[in-house]
């Protein structure tokens, strides 16, 4: 059975994990994150119960922003534990397995009237998450997600044909800093 080697990445930004065919570039991964607007956000409750939810996000300066209600499970979980995990599906073609980017992150809650939220919204940088009245929701709040330095990938950094032929060796990672 193949297991990935989780030693430090080789090269300045990307790595080829032992046995992997993938060599993603940081620019490719960052571009994929910025181009998309949907991810799965995983949190953990104070009782240790995992929770995952599909959410729409806006990518701003290397961070993800999303809106939610203060009373939602994800907001309550983040208030208790800022450590989260994000998975972004990356469809490269209408056929073949989807690729993905996933990473650990830190999440922070912001009130809807926070000056930073207002400034980003007024500049149009949160349009995808504020276009439906989110700034006016009485219980609304915003979440800023800051990814950890290592971003893991599946299926990026290799030709689609290689991914289809050998999906078991398609894991990769890049380092952000």
Helical content band: 10-25%
Number of domains: 1
DSSP strand count: 10
Instruction: Summarize the main sheet.
Output: 10 strands, antiparallel
Tell me which CATH architecture applies here.
Answer: Roll
Radius of gyration: 17 Å
Can you give the mean pLDDT? 90
Question: What would CATH call the homologous superfamily?
Answer: Electron Transport, Fmn-binding Protein, Chain A
- Low-confidence sequence ranges: 1-12
Quaternary state reads single chain
Which term fits the overall shape?
globular
Based on helices, strands and strand pairing, what is the structural class? alpha+beta
According to CATH, what is the topology? Pnp Oxidase, Chain A
Task: Identify the CATH class.
Answer: Mainly Beta
The sequence of SSEs as H and E is EHEEEEHEEHHEEHE
- How many H/I helices? 5
The N- and C-terminal alpha carbons lie at a distance of: 32 Å
- Strand coverage percent: 35-45%
Summarize the structure.
It is built from five helices and ten strands, in the order βαββββαββααββαβ.
Q: Can you tag this structure with a few keywords?
A:
single chain, Pnp Oxidase, Chain A, 5 helices, globular, disordered N terminus
Structure description:
Helices cover 20% and strands 37% of the residues. By secondary structure, the protein is of the alpha+beta class. It has a single domain (14-175), classed as Pnp Oxidase, Chain A (Roll), CATH 2.30.110.10. Strands 1, 2, 3, 4, 5, 6, 7, 8, 9 and 10 form a ten-stranded antiparallel beta sheet that branches. The radius of gyration is 17 Å and the shape is globular. Residues 1-12 have low confidence and may be disordered.
């Amino acid at each position: 059975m193949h297991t990935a080697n989780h030693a430090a990445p080789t090269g300045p930004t990307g790595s080829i994990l032992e046995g992997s065919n993938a060599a993603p570039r940081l620019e490719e991964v960052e571009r994929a994150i910025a181009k998309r607007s949907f991810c799965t956000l995983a949190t953990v409750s104070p009782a240790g119960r995992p929770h995952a939810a599909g959410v729409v996000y806006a990518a701003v300066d290397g961070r993800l922003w999303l809106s939610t209600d203060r009373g939602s499970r994800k907001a309550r979980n983040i208030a208790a534990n800022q450590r989260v995990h994000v998975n972004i599906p990356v469809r490269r073609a209408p056929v073949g397995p989807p690729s993905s980017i996933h990473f650990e992150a830190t999440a922070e809650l912001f009130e809807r009237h926070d000056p930073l939220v207002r400034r980003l919204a007024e500049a149009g940088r949160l349009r995808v998450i504020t276009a439906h009245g989110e700034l006016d929701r009485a219980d609304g709040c915003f979440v800023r997600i800051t990814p950890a330095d290592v971003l893991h990938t599946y299926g990026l950094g290799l030709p689609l044909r290689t991914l289809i032929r050998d999906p078991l060796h398609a894991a990769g990672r890049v380092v952000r800093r």
